[in-house]
Write a structure and sequence with these properties.
9-stranded mixed sheet, 4-stranded mixed sheet, single chain, 510 residues, alpha/beta, 11 helices, 19 strands
């Protein structure tokens, strides 16, 4: 009988100061130091005669196509397995370097810095990966208070953490691979220090086990309405809260998984890039958004009253296509229940490319956490467009208007850019017993994660984003209809989004 073998290590890959951070276009200065280390974590699970899967999780905003190829080759060489058995995932921290992967979107121009990328790749290639027998088990647990939907109060959010636990034959916890959906945006653009944000704090709190973190369907989920401030103390609080729930789950019985190696299947889905508006139309959208900010004309937030969970439609994507269940109700027959705390509060502008939600003072643009934004700055604080707007009051409807201006400016940049006609998205499915991880190179909205889970024939399905590439946001119908920040800078329209989900669901069940 084959034995399940584990090799696991966590590498400190923190760059030196003096390099540009990624995640907020508002930042105008390079990194000055390190708040907490950035790590590349390798968890390799296989048997003596089957290479299985090696998960490489990285504290980065994203992993572009070139970086993925380099890291998969390096990790494969360290383990002595084909690169196709390596899955590379980014945590999406907004306090990592842009130089590892370079430009991930026209909204925030950046260049790959060979000295940084080469150092990272060399560290992975030189990783020591001795293997030892383990047993694998699965748990999941609800985590309330770390993330919430950032657009609509009672909007969709999967607030469960999925936990793969790997124990030695003597019973000690050797490694944990867990997933959770929430932007790591506790630090804002005022921060100039490297940080893994709350995923790093959760990792540290679960030591001495080696801990890998996988980011879920977090496109519209963040800690904007759960955090109590910015800085190291809040990072530790949110990470500690998540870790305490994971530890609680680990303290109880889990689902025993087979002693066979995990299996991986891959495919590529080619999708057309949406038609961008003409430059004149894009400029008009920017002007209208700026006027709305000046005049305080913004969309009223979705009502707070939750609706009852609806019965699953015959077509699992009907809720997505018609907008059913995408604002106040449960998604797809109970994927999110407002009574469990699965839903968050109204509108967050953190995260995303160039994401707004900066500090109320100091950074360009200033007001109401709206500093930064797409295209490198959202206005002159002395010019009246954003400076002083709302007087620093944390008004959700004001944030909607401000972030829409960010998105409008980002869309204008995309309209002027030489975009490809189509993009090729690598999709992979990893299975181990009843557990299935579906990996996509995008920022899925929470509703999409619920759609894929509902349509999967696997008993347990976890939807992972930011993996093996990066191709921006995949937005739900509500965001598309309202012209939300993410909808303005997405590469894909709604019919194409439906194609991605349908083809991914088919591949999951193949």
């Amino acid at each position: 009988m084959s034995k399940l073998l584990l090799a696991a290590t966590s590498l400190d890959v923190t760059p030196p100061p003096g390099h540009r951070l990624d995640g907020y276009a508002a930042r105008t200065a390079p990194a000055t130091g390190t708040a907490d280390p950035l790590r590349a974590t390798l968890i390799w699970l296989g048997t003596a005669d089957d290479p299985g899967v090696l998960w490489l999780t990285l504290d980065a905003i994203a992993v572009g196509k070139e970086l993925v190829a380099d890291l998969a080759a390096a990790a494969g060489a360290a383990a002595g397995i084909p690169p196709a058995h390596v899955v590379v995932s980014a945590s999406h921290t907004h306090s990592g370097p842009s130089g590892w992967t370079g430009e991930i979107h026209p909204v925030i121009p950046a260049e790959r810095e060979p000295e940084l990328a080469d150092a990272l790749i060399a560290a992975v290639a030189n990783a020591s990966l001795p293997r030892r027998p383990v047993t694998a088990s699965w748990r999941s647990i609800e985590v309330v208070g770390v993330g919430a939907n950032r657009h609509r109060k009672n909007g969709p959010h999967d607030n469960t953490a999925g936990i793969l636990a790997l124990h030695s034959s003597g019973g000690s916890l050797e490694a944990v691979l867990f997933d959770f959906a929430c932007h790591p945006t506790t630090y804002g653009p005022e921060n100039l220090q490297w940080s893994a944000d709350w995923p790093g704090a959760a990792r540290d709190a679960l030591a001495p086990a080696v801990v890998g973190f996988l980011q879920g369907a977090a496109g519209d989920v963040s800690p904007r309405f759960t955090r109590r401030g910015r800085g190291a103390a809040e990072v530790a609080r949110l990470g500690g809260l998540l870790a305490s729930r994971v530890r609680e789950a680990l303290g109880g019985p889990g689902l025993e998984l087979p002693q066979s190696a995990p299996a991986i299947r891959r495919t590529t889905i080619t999708l057309p890039v949406r038609d961008m508006p003409a430059p004149e139309e894009a400029a008009s959208t920017v002007a209208a958004a700026a006027t709305a900010v000046r005049n305080g004309l913004h969309t009223t937030p979705t009502p707070d009253t939750p609706t009852a969970l609806h019965t699953p439609p015959t077509d699992p994507y009907a809720g997505l296509r018609t907008g059913l269940g995408n604002a106040t109700g449960g998604t797809l027959g109970g994927a999110a229940d407002p009574s469990t705390g699965a839903f968050g509060a109204v509108d967050d502008a953190t995260g995303g490319l160039g994401g707004a939600d900066g500090p109320s003072t100091g950074a360009p643009g200033g007001a109401n956490g709206a500093s930064g934004g797409a295209g490198g700055g959202v206005g002159d604080s002395s010019g009246g467009v954003l400076g002083g707007v709302l007087g620093g009051v944390d008004d959700p409807s004001g944030r909607i208007a401000l972030t829409r201006l960010d998105g409008a400016r980002g869309q204008s940049l995309m309209a002027a850019a030489d975009l490809p006609d189509q993009l090729e998205l690598p999709i992979s499915v990893v299975t181990l017993g009843d557990v299935c991880w579906v990996n996509l190179p995008v920022e899925l909205f929470a509703l999409h994660g619920a759609c894929l889970q509902a349509d999967s024939t696997h008993p347990i399905t976890r939807v992972i984003g930011y993996t093996d590439g990066y191709y921006g946001y995949i937005v739900d119908p509500s965001a598309a209809e309202s012209g939300a920040y993410e909808a303005l800078i997405t590469f894909f329209d709604q019919p194409t989004t439906n194609t991605l989900l349908t083809r991914t669901a088919t591949f999951i069940n193949t």
